[in-house]
Amino acid sequence: MIASLALMLLPATPARAAGVWDPDDPIYRLDIRWVGVYEQADGRIRLTISFHHRVRLRWFEPLQMGTFSTLAVSFSADRNQEGFTFALFGRRNDRLVAVMCEDQTGCGRGLLRRPDRRTIRAWFDPGALTPHAGWAFRARSWRHSGGAGPLDRTAFGTVT
Q1: Residue 146 has what pLDDT?
Q2: 86 with 72: CB under 8 angstroms?
Q3: With CB atoms 3.0 to 4.6 Å apart as the test, which of 55, 114, 126, 130 could cross-link to 43 if both were Cys?
C-alpha cells in the first residue's frame, strides 16, 4: 500500500532512448549489429553496442586522448555536422575502457561491462558531455586508430 502510494507521488520522468540496427558485413572484425542509447532514471546514459560476431579485446588499440579509437559513437545536435561528443572505446592496461569526450572540453570515464562476447555496455554520468534529446548519433569501428576510413558504420539514429 505504501509502495503504491509512493509510486503515485513520484514524478514521471520521460526516458530518452533510441536504437539503430546495422546489417551483417561478415568480412569485418568489429561488425556492428545494434547500437542503443538510453537515459536511465538516475540520469546516467547507458550505451549498448552489440556485434554480429564475437569480439576480442586484442582487436582494440590502446586508447589515448586526442586520437581516434577503435570503436566510437559520435553524438551531434546537427546530423550534417561531425559529432562533437564522442563515446570512445579502447584498451588500457589490458582492459576494455570507455570514455565520453567533448571537443576541446575534456573526457569523463564510464563504467563498462561485457554482458556477453558480442556486447559492450557502458554507463556515463549525466552532465554536459552526455547527449540530449534530438541529437543524432552514429557508431563507427576502425581496424587501426586513425585509419583511413571506418570498417563499419551505422546509419544515424536520433535520441528521443
Answers
A1: 54
A2: yes
A3: 126
Domain containing residue 107: 15-158
Q: What is the mean pLDDT of residues 124-147?
A: 76
Q: Which residue has the higher pLDDT, 42 or 4?
A: 42
Q: Which residue type does 75 have?
A: F
Largest Cα separation within the chain, whole Å, is 61
Contacts of 133 (CB under 8 A, 6+ apart): 16, 159, 160
| Average pLDDT over every residue of 93-111 | 84
Query: Distance between CA atoms of 100 and 110, rounded to whole angstroms?
Result: 7
Domain count, the chain: 1
Within 8 A by CB and 6+ apart from 148, the residues are: none
Q: In whole angstroms, what is the distance from residue 51 CA to residue 74 CA?
A: 17
Predicted model pTM: 0.81
The reported pLDDT for the residue numbered 9 is 42
In a domain, 4, yes or no: no
- Residue 66 exposed, middle or buried by CB count within 10 Å (0-12, 13-18, 19+): exposed
> Which CATH number covers residue 36?
2.60.40
The identity of residue 147, as a single letter, is: G
